[in-house]
Design brief:
This protein is an alpha+beta fold. The protein contains ten helices and 15 strands. The radius of gyration is 20 Å and the shape is elongated.
């Protein structure tokens, strides 16, 4: 039931909570939102399990005039909620809060949100905390003018195989930065010690166009792009920390890998990296055509011709 718009608990904004009961922490400890009294004024709570149910919940939130949208889940839940919410709310998207209860929580880490943050903490921050802006990564297909997906971490080529490794580490009980570290180590090992026919080294043929530049047909080892400023394990594949859409494109097969990987990950901007085929770019958008799939926030999607662009800044409440 939608609360009366006039009823408001002092100091707390009208809030809608989307909770993913299947996210890692909620599945093991119980949904965080469950600790919030059901009769709390100005609070709507939904736990949708399907995309149609998510859309219906967000339409109810919009009609109720919420001022804060809390997402209780991991990066994948944030991606699904943002993708749907931008369509439903349009330019009137409210402030957002993220409760990091998933297997990976890169956005929450970038925003400086503690791993043990709860829904109650998010509600308090909505009233008294700070706000940080982050633009999303938007994915469009063909000539579409509206995004098909909105997230924060895009990858193709070896990034797809690395994500598959990360998902296997989740099943073995490794999460967040630990899972990233294991997957990174194993992926580099596969590339370094594999033969010439090794699929990690071989790369994937792609057509890449940066902003409005000329398209380039090349085989790439990896494409990795994000609007986040801080990544897990303090990795700096894009160089120094900064806002905006950043991309790392590595030629296949990767050269001088044993020297390049440590340099890249600590943020080195030495000229020899670019000369060896490790190129960083700051862009507003890029278009890529690839036969293999791509990853957005941990989920694999079909390839084809897609445009990856920087979305508008979104407002996230923080401690």
């Amino acid at each position: 039931m939608v609360p009366d718009r006039g009823a408001r608990r002092a100091g707390h904004p009208r809030t809608g909570i989307i909770s993913n009961s299947r996210s890692h922490r909620n599945r093991t400890r119980g949904a965080e939102a469950a600790v919030v009294p059901a009769d709390t004024p100005n609070l709507l709570y939904r736990g949708p399990r399907t995309h149609p149910a998510l859309a219906q919940a967000l339409r109810e939130f919009r009609d109720a005039g919420i001022e804060l949208l809390v997402v209780d889940g991991g990066d994948g839940t944030v991606r699904d909620v943002l993708t749907c919410a931008q369509e439903i709310f349009g330019e009137a998207l409210p402030r957002l809060a993220v409760v990091p209860s998933g297997k990976t929580n890169a956005l929450a880490l970038d925003l400086g949100i503690p791993n043990d943050w709860t829904v109650q903490d998010a509600l308090e921050a909505g009233a008294h905390g700070g706000v940080r802006a982050r633009a999303s990564v938007e994915i469009l297909r063909g000539d579409a003018s509206k995004p098909e997906l909105c997230g924060f971490l895009f990858g193709a080529g070896a990034f797809v195989r690395a994500t598959e490794l990360a998902q296997r580490t989740h099943k073995a009980g490794a999460f967040n930065s630990f899972a990233v570290g294991i997957s990174l180590f194993w992926g580099v090992a596969q590339t370094m010690f594999g033969g010439h026919a090794n699929e990690w080294r071989a790369g994937e043929p792609m057509r890449l166009q940066l902003d409005q530049g000329a398209p380039i047909d090349k085989t790439f080892y990896i494409l990795f792009s994000s609007t986040l400023e801080r990544l897990p394990l303090r990795l700096k594949p894009f160089g120094h920390e900064r806002a905006g859409l950043k991309m790392l494109a590595v030629d296949a097969p990767p050269r001088r890998l044993s020297r390049a990987v440590p340099a890249l990950l600590r943020g080195s901007e030495a000229a020899w990296l670019e000369q060896s085929g490790y190129r960083r770019h700051d862009v507003q958008s890029f278009t890529v055509t690839l036969e293999g799939g791509f990853i957005l926030d941990g989920e694999l999607y079909d390839g084809g011709t897609i445009t990856v662009r920087q979305g508008r800044p979104l407002q996230f409440v923080t401690p």
